């Protein structure tokens, strides 16, 4: 069952009814000012940091779901009122449509002959959002309308705002000047920033106190001010600062009017906060021109067009035309878009991530790179250097760092032994895309300590050494707190309720080893060797280490029909046919084959067959089977989930593209593409009543076959799934793969495809690629045949025509 | 304007309408299982720790305010439904009444001829709450009713529950067996505890998934199950576990039926969690008999009666009959009740305290003692020893400790230099009440380190020494992070938004001194000297130190017409006529006079006159004047509040009783009682539309004269205000004052009073006290005149008649 449709021409998903199975959200903002917005205008906004600079208040897990947002009310002279975005009044509208586009959302409806469409977006270069309401009178007679806006301000620190009422109910402050509502809580003390909410029309009235606007014991479904048709002019003193304008318009039959609202964030210079100086009145001289500009309709038009051009440019890095519509749609629009959102948000802000908890993940951010490095290589470069500067002198890593300070997060700690290797893979991806070898010479400190700088290349060497210095009794890498699977906690032994598995002090003296890290090491060592070779530096050491580790995997990591997962604290095997539960895990199958392990001797193919037999479901590939039916002290969080959910037998989508890549590596294009389609959200659109999450982006998890809700997705948007699926389809199935030596073209297509075309921007040149099946293999570049599958370097700015016949 | 009335005979506050200015709450539970409940059944429950063992979900600062609670719905066969507690349907009821009593609440209403009354309480000795619904058909014909219950389960850790959705939406689990709903999220792993929700009647149906009960995008005001009259039998898998029963009853005209619900918490032995062992099914064999018992009506009747007897006993420690009804009501019922609640909750759980943040305060808990030590001296003894064990070897103190672990809280830290002195005052109060000198010989560790034990007396000596080892250039005590006023941060200099003033690293090298601590030191040193004298230990040293400090105050702490507040980091005076703002503070005026400073030389009287002139308002005495109009880096948080709120010129009620005591000390009974009445909540009942908080308990703060909302109270219930006001009225104005040598009777009455009577339990004996005005002073004990004003010791169990003629 569908709740909408894709409008690929406009790069929009169009939602047909407001009561989607879950709120289906979108993101506003691409630089510093961000927001989430649902299909019924729910959500919130923030400046840079979703925890510390939250502009508007939102209550997660509320009932109704998704209450709190960017609300408008229309009221006719007879007293009837409704919200043109359905929420919060939930009026049964005559029609309704939400169009989620690239960094904008447009929600339209018709009721009582009034068409109302609201466009929400954040202009480039600004720290504000625009709401443009377009009203059309489709009645036969003139109509007099009251328009009310409503937002609730958050008192900046979202965590404190939700818990510290003995203070916060006394601190709220606002100003209203020239019809603009200024929210200035704590501006009087240490904040140099405030929020503002402005309207393009002369005001009939306003409210800034939530209770005055809503009325006592009321919610947003029937604010007393809207019901009565009259603002109160309230000024908030503590309690809940709120912003509401009241505007009256009369529309002749057929007439259209536009009303603009601007909600923004502003920082004044610390020494110019007040006007006059010495007063407590916000100095508005710098912000006023910005507000006035964005209340002008022509400025909004141009700003919206500029946003579209920005996305043209970003998406222009790769556009494909394949026989499969779901592939085209995801690669050309939504997967790329999700990659950019993931880059901007890391794991902080979604319908599932409350913006309170998590910093930037060392491991996450390195993987997110894979998805956006071709769109903005310079941002990837910056991100890499930020990450590397949090690496520890041991070569280990803080598991997370804070985006505002860029310092490693001591609370989460370190010792996730896969972390350092991701830095090698991230840097390799960056160089492959950009050809920018200079990054390796950048001096980067350890743990942000001045004086500790070493070249980034030195960091990569330490990363590899970190693994080699931490091998277990089988010669496999020690797992530490966890490897990629944060929930496989082999040194934790937690029996205390609520204790965090990732931060609790680990038991010492164990020998827990990870086959996953072993596979990852082989991959990373070979990548570093490739880099070293290009640089003319010694590489043999890395190749030897990779070879040796591959041998160790073959000896101690192979279970007979698949790769084992790990050895536990006491040396017992995990992910083996000899286990009663958790016999086979997906991660080592994917990572070992990606590292090349078993590709030559055929064990890779055997492992992949086992995956298909034991883990694949119509909704994707399960993380492990059989799921753990009870808690296992020696395994940790993985066994804490009910069977079929999350790491305990859920379809953890992040891992699925590894299997797609592995299938491509062994030449199975049908198998790779089959897996791709199983979790491709567009391909699952018709199952929306089962999938429940947005059909335009990947979710982190789909409930596995042991779950009563098999097929139900959760945790959409912010997941490494986005970057890896993008890599799997574009680099391995379509085979347009950046390498150190240039752009490789090595598709592994499903057998039914006659071919595809693509346009790929690479190191400044643009490649027009045609892949077609023919009698015999040939590769033509600008009409001339070339050997191998790596396209020769082309000068920046040139257009290159490439034809590959398979 | 009133929203209810006091029913003193039943010890209840009776609320007449549901839409009180703010939710007016009460507390359920007195031992281990607790809840808050509003006058419309809002609130939540927890076991011991409001953060880590939260049973039900509540959303603070929601709209409507106070949504989420212990809800019932009634539905007639024609499909109409309503909540007999008004929320959440907000149906306009034909009548409504909420009776908040001592640890129980009863909410009744009538609608469509159905009278419904629900009694909520926690039986003594149990970890569960009972809801008893009594339905009466007042119609002329039989009526068929559906009853639906509704609670939403919290996933135990309230902080995690409100932020970590990427995990929590996948973990929820329930069981339903024999009509009982078991909430067992995480029971499968490390929790040995679960919640249950049972009903006394055979079920027509049930729901355990919130969305199934409410319906998509709905709230509790119109659950789809109630609207349709049929439960769905939903079993929650992740998302939001919920509990709802459906019961059908037919009531003949005039018939009354009772339906019982039990919501509880249960811990199984770790090795007997599952039945059968090896399964994942909750072992219910231990809990079933408990559930069955409390579903029986006669058991509930007896349990409720036992609760009443418990309160009879607790309140029996002191009952007074004075000419002032507000005094009688607060002393005999509500203030004593609030003292017990404050003792149980510290500052964790109220409408303003979200249960997430704060541990037990070293300073808070010592002061809270003052209010309940006469009711349960043995609990006070235990509390004192817990507190003292967190004292540091330096004599300093952690500012807070955690109630579950009883360890000092490193996050909040130490260095609040008033803290150690409160231990002396708390112990003195305990000994005075109990006569239990043995506590001083108890071995108590420092910082909970085994091996560091010293007698409690030694702890008190170190407390005093802590101050003497930290004197500033004027000889006044250094203030450290702060003294009693947490918001006067003289060493902080915070310019970072959102930084905590109390935990940020302080600047070093300053000389900030506190006149308040100086006054407190004089008081504490004299108390310790008194204890030493009784013990026959050296006391002169303490008396000399007190004398010397009093002299220092006179020299450097006296401003000419009042006591100064402090000297800042650089030695500049605070709380002086020479300041432009913050010229006079309330705290040193109260504390110095309580320490006896200036009582002999008349400066005390001068200071009190200044308070009356500059700080007293009809709504209470303001903390300081003039309020700080802008943020002052050198003063910290106090200047962060808008003028008139909290410490920045608010009426911080905690401090007001110090002035009442000071007035009593200088013999001004009219002045003392005048201040008492200004903030006495019962006396402010008629101002409820201004005061807004509950008229039956003290609030921490009333907005001061600089605030636009002057007279509006905030942060009711959990405040040291309760204990101190109780001490002021009972010990100083009524003058029934425990001393080391026995019970002193030294009233300082308002001039208009002819006298009063009281019954006071003291060290096991019961004193029947009559105070009356007469020609000449005499004190008769059992008819015989005695000298002085200390009653001779009476054997436990005896009744003593005391007549004081003034």
TrEMBL record, chains A, B:
<feature type="domain" description="Glycosyl hydrolase 94 catalytic">
    <location>
        <begin position="311"/>
        <end position="735"/>
    </location>
</feature>
<dbReference type="InterPro" id="IPR008928">
    <property type="entry name" value="6-hairpin_glycosidase_sf"/>
</dbReference>
<dbReference type="Pfam" id="PF17167">
    <property type="entry name" value="Glyco_hydro_94"/>
</dbReference>
<keyword id="KW-0808">Transferase</keyword>
<dbReference type="InterPro" id="IPR052047">
    <property type="entry name" value="GH94_Enzymes"/>
</dbReference>
<dbReference type="Pfam" id="PF03633">
    <property type="entry name" value="Glyco_hydro_65C"/>
</dbReference>
<dbReference type="GO" id="GO:0016740">
    <property type="term" value="F:transferase activity"/>
</dbReference>
<dbReference type="InterPro" id="IPR037018">
    <property type="entry name" value="GH65_N"/>
</dbReference>
<dbReference type="InterPro" id="IPR010383">
    <property type="entry name" value="Glyco_hydrolase_94_b-supersand"/>
</dbReference>
<feature type="domain" description="Glycoside hydrolase family 65 C-terminal">
    <location>
        <begin position="741"/>
        <end position="787"/>
    </location>
</feature>
<dbReference type="InterPro" id="IPR011013">
    <property type="entry name" value="Gal_mutarotase_sf_dom"/>
</dbReference>
<keyword id="KW-0328">Glycosyltransferase</keyword>
<protein>
    <submittedName>
        <fullName>Glycosyl transferase</fullName>
    </submittedName>
</protein>
<dbReference type="Pfam" id="PF06165">
    <property type="entry name" value="GH94_b-supersand"/>
</dbReference>
<dbReference type="InterPro" id="IPR033432">
    <property type="entry name" value="GH94_catalytic"/>
</dbReference>
<dbReference type="InterPro" id="IPR005194">
    <property type="entry name" value="Glyco_hydro_65_C"/>
</dbReference>
<dbReference type="InterPro" id="IPR012341">
    <property type="entry name" value="6hp_glycosidase-like_sf"/>
</dbReference>
<feature type="domain" description="Glycosyl hydrolase 94 supersandwich">
    <location>
        <begin position="11"/>
        <end position="272"/>
    </location>
</feature>
